[in-house]
Amino acid sequence: MSTVDTALHVALTLVAPPMLLGVVNKTKAAFAGRVGPPLLQPYYDLARLSRKGMVFSSTTTWVFVAGPVVALVTTLAAAVLVPFGARGAALSFAGDMILFAYLFGLGRFFTVAAALDTGSAFEGMGGAREATFSVLAEPALFLGLMVLVRLSGTSSLSTMLGPGLAHHWGVMGASLVMVVASFVVVLLVESSRVPFDDPNTHLELTMIHEVMVLDHSGPLFGVVLYGAAMKLFVLGALVVRLVLPMDTAHAWSDWGLFALGMIGLSIGIGVVESVMARLRMRQVPNLLVGACLLSAFGIVLLAR
Amino acid sequence: MKELIVAVLVLVAGGVLAALLSRWPRLASTVGATTAVAGSTIGAVFAARMLGGQAPARVEIAWNVPAGAIVLGCDAVSAFFLLPVFVLGAIAAVYGRDYLLHEAHGKSLGVPWAAYCVLLASMALVATARHAIAFLVAWELMSLSSWVLVTFEHERAEVRRAGWVYLIAAHVGVAALTAAFLLWGATTGTLLLESTGFALPANARTALLLLALAGFGLKAGLFPLHVWLPEAHAAAPSHVSAVMSGVMVKLGVYGIVRMTMLVGGPPAWFARALLLLGLVTAIYGVVFATHQRDLKRALAYSSVENVGLVVVGVGLAMLGHATGRPTLAVLGAAGALLHVWNHAAMKGLAFLGAGAVVHATGTRDLERLGGLLRRMPVSGALFGLGAVAVAGLPPLNGFVGEWLLYRSLIDGAIGGGAGAPLGFTFAIGALSAVGVLAALAFVRLCSIALLGAPRSPEAAKAHEPTPLMVGSMAVLGLACIAGSVAPGALVRAFGAATVSLAGVAPAMNGDVRAALVPIGVADVILWITCVAGVLVAARVARRARGRGAEQETWGCGYAAPTARMQYTARGFAELATGFLPRRVQPHVEIARPRGLFPARAGFVSRDEDPVTRDVYERVLEGLADRFARLRWLQQGVVHLYVLYVFLAVVAALTWVSMRGWGGP
């Protein structure tokens, strides 16, 4: 991991996330036979929001402001720990996978607290859903990571997703397929995409993430959107590296492969959103339990 | 050892003095709190010096009791448990001075302060007693003095009930411990609680460990012996809850550790049993912490969870010790011990914060709170800090101990290569579930209590507590932050205790510190970025607010929202409790609206512990029915009771002498 790689890693984390949303929206437009918004529309949206004023609910405190900011900071910190493609993470140490998972926990804590700070029934509903579904998503993530831990014998994300990964695919492909499936579910639920949550829905009663941020406006809402995109990017990087375990032994081709992978992932998400309806709320836990079981089966397979 | 004895004497003398000054509540409180602080300071200095690498100390005082002697000793493990007793004891005493005065409502405060001082002194003696009789006396004093404090508000029925449950539980525990020590005496020929080097027979060792697990597990609140804990912690005055939860229940863990050291190292099966028991306790505790309506009951269930986590670490340390895996052992031991100290700080803070809420509003009912952060910004923020810490989230100290436990389990999961047992791997899954459930429980607690709009007139009139109370909370808050940014320093401070618990070479403690360096750095970076980010955003927001951009919360266009339209504590937990098995769900009575002109509808939910309701109460009621048939023995005539005593003595003497004739 050279200095250039580190710089590129951080720069990509900061700049690229809204692009994913642009690709997703383009894909959905293509499926619907529309032209769709420009690829850079999410950037325009962020720029527009940053120029707007803000409105605050009269019950709120500093926690309402802290929610989006802490969510963004923790996602950024998690991004530093996750390897982008074969080039490794900007920072890695033994046990960083635990910090990685818990950082999302901190972000979620503040997002939910900020939602409840408004005293709105809708936002309370969203907060309860977010907190409850994470109870099932987190063990799925942890058990999936444990497959990688057992395969690689380390607890650092960069090493377990490092050069040895291609070899593990050859030996224990079945387990890894289950992990990928489980991570895709975690990715979709954590970044509130269809079939778990619909970012474009307009009915508060059916939302999870969107309903928690109803009262955020202006630049603060921009921070919320940017943070959500970054979360998608970070969790997506995990899945992309798992699916594309090759090591091209050349820096630029590694980065290129990673970029292609991320674009492919966004197209995939767009396809899912185009061909599927969102699930009824009571079915979401079933699918999450399924993800946990998939990860658990992955572990059991390792011990044959 | 002199300092410790001085500390105990100061505490006892202060307690007596406070009791004598009962007529003047303010004076009694000041005297009680001052001596508690003075005695604790002396004791804390002693404990810190003992931890700092002094050779184990020992002192013997003759005592005029058959087979009794006061033998006190202090090694690294004792000193490790002593230090939080004194530190938290002093901080909670400062807090308690104003808190009790406010809660007294004309009650005498002499006896509660005497009980508080005796509680601190007896906890110190429990951690250092090296003779079975002295230990049992100190243990009993600890239970009784805390019982006096738990029943402080004895005019309320639910407090009396909590007191009863606590008293019964404590004495069942003492019965088990007495049996354990008698067995120890019978097998080793001494009542001294010191390693004899004598190889215990396997059966005796098993029996000793199980009896200790029952007796000490009751105090520690291990499932299914935890039922007294939520009742007693909720009923006690908040600073007492802080001490009970922060340090007293940990003495149960100390007892388990001490007993395994006595029997010459733990067998692997016992370590596995502890690991499993700890996980079950943690899961049970955290699940119930997610849906309690009573703020302090929820905190108490979270204590059950955290004791479970500590026991997981102790089990890992013993397992590593028994199976010869030093890395597993040292990470588990350091994690468990670090969590003991961290939990004393963060749960102490959380209970003191709950006390500030009670002080300001007079209620612990979450459905009557809300909007407190606006009305008590400093103590509210400190309570929130404690909540994030107890939820085990970075960048606070609760996370560090859990991180070490994860590391230990990961070492177990990969240590044996591909054929390593799956138990460790699934234990990690369980631990992660405990972690997110704790986050759910605490985001609910602090958001419902502190944020949003006030749900009752009392909450709307809330105010900051006194400077002494806020100050003592701030000290604990700083301790939590310090524990998060410099965990290595703590691990070094109690290195000797880690090493003796894990049974590894002292150098291994340095490895733990090295492993913790990145976590400390990450916590520092997180603190800086989060605080800086929030400050910048708050500045921008303040400017916007200044321009009059304040509106009602958006409610789908509804123009007259009320505080009752907010999400309730019950509602927030509803989705999560829905996954629970029906028997474990909170008891709910719903009167649905019926007919075309519905007259009455209602919803009542009660939080009971299903283990109490379905197991203990059922069994005890059955027993009570049986015993009722023996009522004819109880005639209320003194002569008859003397006769019973006489007959019992004759029977005992006959048995003893017959046994003497019968053979060897």
Structure description:
The complex is a heterodimer of chains A (304) and B (664). Chain A has helices at residues 3-15, 17-32, 41-51, 62-81, 96-117, 121-152, 157-160, 165-190, 209-212, 218-243, 251-275, 284-302, and one strand at 56-57. By secondary structure, chain A is mainly alpha-helical. The mean pLDDT of chain A is 91. Chain A is built from twelve helices and one strand. Chain A is 72% helix and 1% strand. Chain A has one domain. By secondary structure, chain B is mainly alpha-helical. Chain B folds into four domains: 1-194 and 203-264, no CATH class; 269-537, no CATH class; 583-628, no CATH class; 633-659. Chain B is built from 24 helices and five strands. Chain B has helices at residues 2-20, 25-51, 76-103, 110-128, 132-150, 157-188, 202-220, 228-235, 238-262, 268-289, 295-323, 326-361, 372-375, 377-390, 397-415, 422-450, 457-460, 467-485, 487-493, 495-502, 508-546, 569-577, 610-628, 638-662, and strands spanning 57-62, 69-74, 550-551, 587-591, 602-606. Chain B has a two-stranded antiparallel sheet. In chain B, β1 and β2 form a beta hairpin. In chain B, α2 (25-51) packs antiparallel against α3, α3 (76-103) runs antiparallel to α9 (238-262) and α19 (487-493) packs antiparallel against α21 (508-546). Chains A and B meet through β1, α4, α5, α6 and α10 of A and α14, α15, α16, α21 and β3 of B.
List the helices and strands and how they pair.
The complex is a heterodimer of chains A (304) and B (664).
Chain A lengths: L2 H13 L1 H16 L8 H11 L4 E2 L4 H20 L14 H22 L3 H32 L4 H4 L4 H26 L18 H4 L5 H26 L7 H25 L8 H19 L2
Helix pairs in contact in A: 2-10, 2-11, 3-10, 4-5, 4-10, 5-6, 6-8, 6-12, 8-10, 8-12, 10-11
Chain B lengths: L1 H19 L4 H27 L5 E6 L6 E6 L1 H28 L6 H19 L3 H19 L6 H32 L13 H19 L7 H8 L2 H25 L5 H22 L5 H29 L2 H36 L10 H4 L1 H14 L6 H19 L6 H29 L6 H4 L6 H19 L1 H7 L1 H8 L5 H39 L3 E2 L17 H9 L9 E5 L10 E5 L3 H19 L9 H25 L2
Helix pairs in contact in B: 1-2, 1-4, 2-3, 2-4, 3-4, 3-9, 3-12, 3-18, 3-20, 4-5, 4-9, 5-6, 6-7, 6-8, 7-9, 8-9, 8-11, 9-11, 9-12, 10-11, 10-16, 11-12, 11-15, 11-16, 12-14, 12-15, 12-18, 12-20, 14-16, 14-18, 15-16, 15-18, 19-21
